[in-house]
Design goal:
The protein is 39% helix and 29% strand. By secondary structure, it is of the alpha+beta class. A hairpin with a 4-residue loop joins strand 5 and strand 6. The longest helix has 20 residues.
């Protein structure tokens, strides 16, 4: 996505504060350790988080490999999901009542063996923002499908995922 499109998609102050906090490697490490320990063990990283785009990475290492000498599909799925989840977390942050979210669908395509550090990039922040705005204005749930593509350092595409997220604003508590 170009810089002009990025500038059109703005974050509110709470979202920007959350973005700065979670992109910090130490804070992200703690988030994984306490919330997603399998991701911590696998060595997942959040490389970039902007309003329109998120990039994660996963290394090729002993704990992540399969018998075919590539990154195990479940490890790829975990890192791919994080690239979409980061955008969902970011755009749902700071609303009262809060917005609930859950994955309701997954499609995956494995193109080549992942034999090196693999990066997953989701450039669908605008779709998440539209879904959140729909929930806030109508009070109705929304489902958004987010594509993320896994590439190795040399640009080789190894896998493609589409995660479908259901978003719904929680009821106001009396």
């Amino acid at each position: 996505m170009n810089d002009i499109a990025e500038n059109k998609l703005e974050l509110n102050p709470q979202q920007e504060q959350f973005r700065r906090k979670i992109i910090n490697p130490l804070n992200f490490w703690w988030f994984l350790l306490t919330g997603v320990p399998a991701g911590w063990i696998a060595g997942m990283r959040l490389k970039e988080l902007q309003a329109s785009k998120a990039t994660t990475s996963i290394p090729f290492k002993f704990l992540n490999k399969n018998p075919f000498k590539s990154i195990y599909f479940a490890v790829q799925s975990m890192a791919a999901e994080l690239s979409t989840a980061a955008l969902v977390l970011l755009h749902c942050h700071g609303y009262k009542p809060s917005i609930a979210y859950i994955i309701v669908g997954l499609e995956a395509k494995f193109v080549k063996k992942a034999t090196g550090r693999t990066f997953f990039t989701c450039e669908s922040g605008n779709l998440v923002k539209e879904a959140v705005d729909h929930c806030l204005t109508t009070g109705e749930p929304a489902v958004v499908s987010l594509q993320t593509i896994g590439k190795m350092d040399d640009g080789t595409v190894v896998s493609e995922f589409v995660f479908s997220w259901s978003l719904k604003q929680r009821s106001k508590v009396s």
